[in-house]
Amino acid sequence: MLPAPTVPFAPGMRVLCRDAEWMVTKVDPADPENRHFAVACTGADDLVRGFDAVFLTQLDVIQPVDPRDTELEADVSPGFQKAKLFLEAQLRQMPMTDMHPAPEGMGAFEPMRYQIEVVEKALRQMRPRLLLADAVGLGKTIEVGMIVSELIARGRGNRILVMTKKSMLSQFQSELWNRFAIPLVRLDSTGIAKLRLKIPASKNPFEVFHRVIMSIDTLKDVGRYRPFLEKTRWDIVIIDEAHNVAGASSADRVLSYRLAKLMSRSTDSMLLATATPHNGKRETFGRLISLLDPSAIPDPKLREYDAKDIAPFVLMRFKEDVRQEAGDNFSERKVIPLASPSPPNGPPCFNSRRVPC
User: Could you give the C-alpha distances from 293 to 68, 152, 288, 290, 304, in angstroms and in order?
Assistant: First the structure.
């Protein structure tokens, strides 16, 4: 009986290859004699973190990282500052396991109780999928940022895609960066075309950047980007002004709905934000809910659903509902009429060249 072949690597090992550190995830024989192996790895250091690769032992030099070779260095800094910073960095990299959010220090804002309740509801779900339909001024963007921050802290928000209208790109991107320090790379059709010229032909352009914000109008051409989108997995997909992807009668909105339906199958968590979720048609609103969970409303055309079916997915509050806990955070709007006296000779006159008469 022949002895079993010796496999030099095992899943979980740290190895050095091509001047980078990797963690082995799988080892397969590369020839019938089991003399060479295909080592599947995922990036472990800052240079290759988040990337997967397969190395062949007959082509690459793969060196195991032995923890026994670690050299200990005494911390001679005042007050052991280096050691404390190292321990703090390690603790920050560990995913949180507490089911309750930690709003303190989450961002540059003062969280209110009704916003914390949104995060708590998202964390109670195995796959956070919510329709945030609060009224204008209640801070839906802040609620989205709070949920995303918590998912990132739990190791579930590495790859993020934000889709919104072109006019809202700058505002949404600015809010997540200024309040939560979450950077988003803005891409458009021209940017994707330039990116494809710089990367290998076999590389998916949507896998180059891990946190992206794009216009719905750019991505709704599903036929153009579908081969790439189908092969891309996201941790979180956020759709702002989600009523635009509910699949109304116009052709553009039908394309947007097809895009949203495709993205709902390619992500773990999904957040829809809109202040006008219902246009008066139960079928259109049912499509929004089906994006979050197809089993909640299997066929929106049948219109057989009630409030109990959508309760786990919808959060909708008005200012009157949260005015007591918001306190002075809501300022009253005052309309002041301004009287402008007309000139003595009547309104000004202009000719065809816009020159005063």
Answer: 49, 22, 9, 5, 15
Residue 269 pairs in a beta bridge with 236
pLDDT tens string 246-275:
876 665 678 888 899 999 999 999 999 998
**Pairing outcome for strands 20-29 and 14-17:** antiparallel
DSSP bridge partners of 272? 131, 239
Cα 201 to chain centroid distance, Å, stands at 26
Dihedral angle of Cα 14, 17, 20, 24, to the nearest 10 degrees: -30
The CA distance from 320 to 336, in Å, is: 23
Among 1.10.530.10, 3.40.50.10810, 3.40.50.300, 1.10.10.10, what is the CATH number of 98-324? 3.40.50.10810
> pLDDT for 298-348, tens place per residue?
676 666 677 787 888 999 888 888 877 766 666 666 778 877 666 666 555
CA separation, residue 154 to residues 97, 177, 270 (Å):
7, 19, 16
